[in-house]
Amino acid sequence: MKIILGIGIGISLLGIFQLLKGKNAKLTSTKIAVLINIVWTVRCIFFLLKDSEIASKYPILLMLDQNLLLLDSVVLWLYSKSLLNTTKFKFKILLNFLPFIMGLSLSLISYLSVPDELILEQYMKLEKNISNNESLFSIDVLILFLVIIMLSIIYFSKSIREIKKFNSILYNHFSSLKNISANWILKFHSLWVSLFLIPIILYFFNYMYPVINVRILLSFMIIIQVLFSFIFNSNVLSQNYVSIPKKSILKQDNKPIKQFKDELNELKRALETSKYYQDENLSLVKLSSYLNIKSIELTDIIKYSEFENFYDLINTYRIESIKKELISSTEQIMIIAYDNGFNSKSAFNRIFKDKTGQTPSTYRKLNKNTSQQY
What we know:
This protein is an all-alpha fold. It contains 18 helices and no strands. The protein has helices at residues 2-21, 28-50, 54-57, 61-64, 72-82, 91-94, 98-113, 116-131, 139-173, 183-208, 214-238, 257-274, 284-291, 295-303, 310-328, 333-339, 345-356, 360-372. α5 (72-82) packs parallel to α9 (139-173), α10 runs antiparallel to α11 (214-238) and α15 (310-328) packs across α18. The chain is elongated. 26% of the residues are buried.
């Protein structure tokens, strides 16, 4: 198990190094990702030290590690929030660390009020009871257990709200979400809540009603921690950060509806003739500059159209162009997709299916057969 812990520490430290030397080192999101890695590194170090002679010299190490469980969901939520560039290190943000600070303070007070010999004696007794599968119920353990569950659920729900808000803004400003969407953090957070929280629940439940070998549960938690550290750092390092407008764009109600309709028709003609949608990096700002209008004006035009957002507008035109080429040419499907602005095979297949109800190959086959009959 020491080898696995060493790997976990190595992954987290490597992640910290890559984040700090990268081009996004000054971003708040990067700083929070570094903080997450620090928390996980410290946890792995605590696991190592508790089974070493150092713990007998510094018994305080035996009392602090459980407090780190009060941090995970908070820092994962902070990372989600930071993607909108709204996270600032103010007092209000620090309040989210209050449960951890209180837990840490209680541990330090307990340590200072109890002799080192008694702490070691209690720890050895605890280890012996665990080995013998004896009941270890205590009100302190129960309270900690309930607080961890409550925090995990609360901050997971808060992360969902932040990512939905972030993605909504992306859909209004970008035609492609490759490596800028943050849906992965939601999947990661949900996996964290389930795969990491469940062993914690079983671990504390086992204190009261010994059924499962605690050593096995602890080993499973360590393996999950190392695996999650690898998954998190892989996604964070491949995440592209984009500039998001600080203020929401509102409708300009001072224009008559007819004028919006005229401008919408002009927008459609421009897309059909100039084929701006073929630019895989097309954004709201870029298209606005092509059309020589302000971004806020383009946003208002789209709001008065049949399209849900900028993302829907551009990808609708991409799909319509691809549908024509699938019937009229024999070119490979993905070459046609890339030529029309898609930069992701999975995104193209998903959007094509959403728009047509068919896969690209099925659409080509059915419509080519139909066209040959006439």
